[in-house]
Amino acid sequence: MIDLHYWPTPNGHKVKLMLEETGLAYRELPVDIGRGDQFEPAFLAIAPNNRIPAIVDHAPAGGGDPLSMFESGAILLYLAEKTGRYLPADLRGRAEVLQWLFWQMGGLGPMAGQNGHFNIYAPEKVPYAIDRYVRETARLYGVLDRRLADREYIAGDYSIADMACHPWIRPYESHGQDLAAFPNLHRWFDAINERPAAQRSYVEGDAYKRDRPMSDEERRVLFGSGPTSR
After folding, report:
1. Where are the domains of the chain?
2. Which CATH number fits domain 2-85: 3.30.2350.10, 3.40.30.10, 1.20.1300.10, 1.10.150.120?
3. Domains 2-85 and 91-201 in one fold
4. CATH number for the domain running over 91-201
């Protein structure tokens, strides 16, 4: 059994999608990042960077004590190696997947995340920041679109690279992007949306979302140093 400490952000969706694809038994433990659950001592013990997602594997390979992990990319790699799925065993195939996994971690995620922050959550509009991150998100979409011009998935076969990137494309409208401008990316995006594991992951995860605007306190907790009191 794996404990998944989760909230329905793109990084949270990445790991939930992988668990759904592999069929590993897991228990979902919501971490309400607007309420400040990520600052609880029990969560910090397994995720010292106070960010979701994190996992605890109660049956790691070789036995022994439960193994905890934070950082979504590291978790995807761990689960791929644990199951022997969605990461090629051969040198060149593995290298292809890992390059694109780290591309998402170092590029697509941070840039799209800043895009979303300045477009949606920032208390004041900063035109320079909005323009910069919308344009950089478009550039990264273009990189992915060109990559997908001659292959079905990012590294050929469906892999953790696709699972890492797809949740960061889902908010394309709020990030100021039009998928019609990226036909290869659009085709890939739709194909993953049709996968049963993706449908389960997103429908279940989105059930946590609030149907109201973020409050000032939630915004302060999410983008500040922590909750006012616990």
Report:
1. 2-85, 91-201
2. 3.40.30.10
3. no
4. 1.20.1050.10
- pLDDT (tens digit per residue) in 106-137: 999 999 999 999 998 888 999 999 999 999 99
Report whether 57 contacts 33 (CB < 8 A): no
Strand, coil or helix: what is 63? coil
pLDDT digit string, tens, across residues 31-67: 999 899 999 999 999 999 999 999 999 999 989 999 9
Please return the burial class of 14, using the count of CB atoms within 10 Å of its CB with bins 0-12, 13-18 and 19+: buried
Largest CA distance in the chain: 53
Looking at the chain, which runs of residues are DSSP E strands? 2-6, 26-30, 54-57, 67-70
Whether 171 contacts 165, CB under 8 Å: no
Strands annotated E in 59-106 = 67-70
pLDDT of 121: 87
Closest Cα partner for 104 from 184, 180, 31, 13?
13
Q: How far is 182 from 186, CA to CA, in rounded Å?
A: 6
Two structure tokens written together for 80: 């791929």
Instruction: Supply the pTM of this predicted model.
Output: 0.92
- Provide the residue type at 72 as one letter: S
Written as six digits, the tokens of 186 are 């659009």
C-alpha 88/C-alpha 114 separation (Å) is 32
